[in-house]
Write a structure and sequence with these properties.
Blueprint lengths: L13 H11 L3 E3 L11 E5 L5 E5 L12 E6 L4 H8 L9 E9 L5 E10 L11 E10 L20 H4 L26 E4 L8 H4 L6 E5 L5 E9 L7 E5 L1 H6 L7 E7 L45 E2 L13 E6 L5 H8 L11 E3 L5 E3 L26 E6 L6 H7 L5 E3 L8 E3 L4 H18 L3 E4 H4 L13 H7 L8
Parallel strand pairs: 1-5, 7-11, 8-10, 13-16, 14-17, 14-20, 15-17
Antiparallel strand pairs: 2-3, 4-6, 5-6, 7-12, 8-11, 9-10, 9-12, 15-16, 18-19
Length: about 500
């Protein structure tokens, strides 16, 4: 435990906290200038002379597995007033009270503020709780001078001071036009960026102080918990996580060393597709069990047509010797029928796909699955190239992608704000309706089973330099799990 702290049960009500404050308010702690690597949580204080000092809240990073919630109050606030404000904190009933001080600086000057430090208990999954595990290479990011991000770049869900307040002690004051990426206290606090699937782990869940990811050096077995803070690494890298230099130093890691990342899932399952099962440890990848039925089991007949799909035959294609992959696309257009109409024109230059799924979940089939379609173009995957047209099935989803003007004409869903995994700025994308996602899951499962497909991937995986579909709004990792594959593309 930190020095001058009390080991007490979680706070349950206002009276309990008020009593603790009355007991602890007499304690006095001198401010100490931060400067040691192991300092974990600190509050920035400014004396009347204008000099800023870091008042150490914890003496050892191992003292608390979760960064403290530090709250400042005017000295005139009564214990009851402070307690009332504290109990407004989200999930306050889970908090542990650590200590309350009237701070005094080294020069003897009395602070005009009261501060309390509150901690959530270490977050371990409850019995039956679910974790997904990913193993792969790491890198570091964040802080002043990071060349991997622009000076004014913000983080995926931290774009203003109000959002940053949920990460007390994590950011330096701005010096100019710095974004929150450069303002990170990279050498003092534990944070992590992964390529999160927001439909499984929403930004609101990742931003909670109780959401902690465990990072383990697979070589030494040493672990540390870190708070999710951004989306990354860049999709063109073969890394699975970007860490704070603080985490890398604690775990004795260098860029491209191997780590395992254990991610706790929310207690409620996502609306689309199943939660991954308990980690199997096979290959160190995130794995999932069989997906539950989406309400219908789809069948493929002996002529390679999907039973129940609306047939819209487009002539052409060649016999496929062996189908190996399933590729997901968005149409960048209006309705499914409008895309099919376009494919029948000369302007399409042979473009087509086996299936098109409309926003309402209606499935259209344009060519039997054992014949090629012109959906992949110039593309490479797992040694196959210069095109995957010869060995893959293509599914197009009616979706406008990043054409927000078109998206607003065809959907009432909120736009999905995200950076593409292959790079680029934060932008808006058309969201995929549940009916469309469920239809895509059902048919993908049927195709993978029937043709023993090796992989389920996006157009942006096989042609990353020229394509951005199906984009970040599509939960590809979840679909892969539903099809019996690892969530992480390998």
């Amino acid at each position: 435990m930190p020095k001058n702290s009390q080991s007490l049960p979680p706070l349950k009500n206002l009276d309990a906290l008020t009593a603790l404050l009355k007991e602890a308010n007499e304690k006095v702690c001198k401010g100490q200038k931060a400067g040691k690597e192991y300092i974990y949580g600190a509050a920035l204080w400014t004396g009347e002379d204008g000099e800023s000092v870091n008042v150490v809240i914890l003496d050892d990073a191992t003292a608390a597995p979760v960064p403290p919630i530090v709250r400042e109050f005017p000295a005139t606030f009564s214990d009851e007033e402070i307690a009332t404000e504290v109990m407004k904190i989200e999930d306050a009933e889970k908090l542990h009270f650590s200590s309350a001080y009237n701070f005094k600086f080294e020069d003897g000057q009395q602070s005009e503020m009261k501060v309390i430090a509150l901690f959530y208990p270490s977050v371990a999954p409850a019995a039956g709780g679910e974790i997904v595990s990913i193993t792969g290479k790491m890198s570091t990011f964040g802080g002043w001078g990071d060349t991997g991000m622009t000076r004014d770049e913000d983080l995926a869900w931290i774009e203003n001071e109000a959002q940053a307040s949920g990460y007390p002690g994590y950011f330096n004051p701005p010096r100019g036009d710095e974004g929150f990426g450069w303002r990170l206290k990279k050498d003092e606090v534990p944070y992590i960026a992964c390529r999160w699937e927001y439909k499984v782990t929403p930004k609101s869940y990742l931003a909670k102080p109780t959401t902690l990811v465990t990072v383990t050096n697979t070589k030494t077995g040493e672990s540390i918990q870190a708070r999710p803070i951004d989306w990354g690494p860049h999709g063109k890298t073969d890394r699975i996580a970007d860490l704070s230099p603080f985490v890398a130093t604690r775990l004795k890691l260098k860029t491209d060393d191997e780590v395992r990342v254990d991610i706790p899932l929310p207690s409620k399952a996502p609306a689309f597709l199943p939660k991954p099962a308990e980690p199997t440890g096979v290959g160190g990848q995130m794995t999932g069990g069989p997906a539950p039925s989406s309400g219908r089991e789809l069948e493929i007949d002996s002529d390679h047509w999907l039973v129940g799909a609306r047939r819209e035959p487009i002539a052409g294609g060649q016999q496929m010797n062996k189908c190996r992959f399933l590729v997901i696309h968005f149409t960048s257009g209006a309705s499914a029928e409008s895309s099919i109409d376009f494919w029948r024109t000369r302007a399409a230059k042979g473009a087509s796909a086996h299936l098109v799924i409309d926003r309402d979940g209606t499935i259209y089939q344009c060519r039997p699955f054992d014949h090629t379609c012109g959906h992949a173009g110039d593309s490479k995957w797992k040694g196959v190239g210069p095109t995957l047209n010869t060995c893959s099935i293509g599914i197009e989803l009616a979706n406008a992608g990043d054409d927000t003007r078109l998206a607003k004409r065809f959907t009432k869903l909120p736009l999905f704000a995200a950076k593409h995994k292959n790079g680029g700025k934060l932008q808006s994308w058309e969201a995929y309706p549940d009916a469309q996602l469920k239809a895509c899951e059902a048919v993908s499962r049927a195709l993978v089973a029937r043709y023993e497909l090796e992989d389920v991937i996006g157009h942006d995986d096989i042609a990353p330099d020229r394509k951005n579909d199906p984009g970040p709004a599509f939960p590809l990792a979840n679909l892969r799990v539903a099809c019996g594959l690892s969530a992480q593309i390998v």
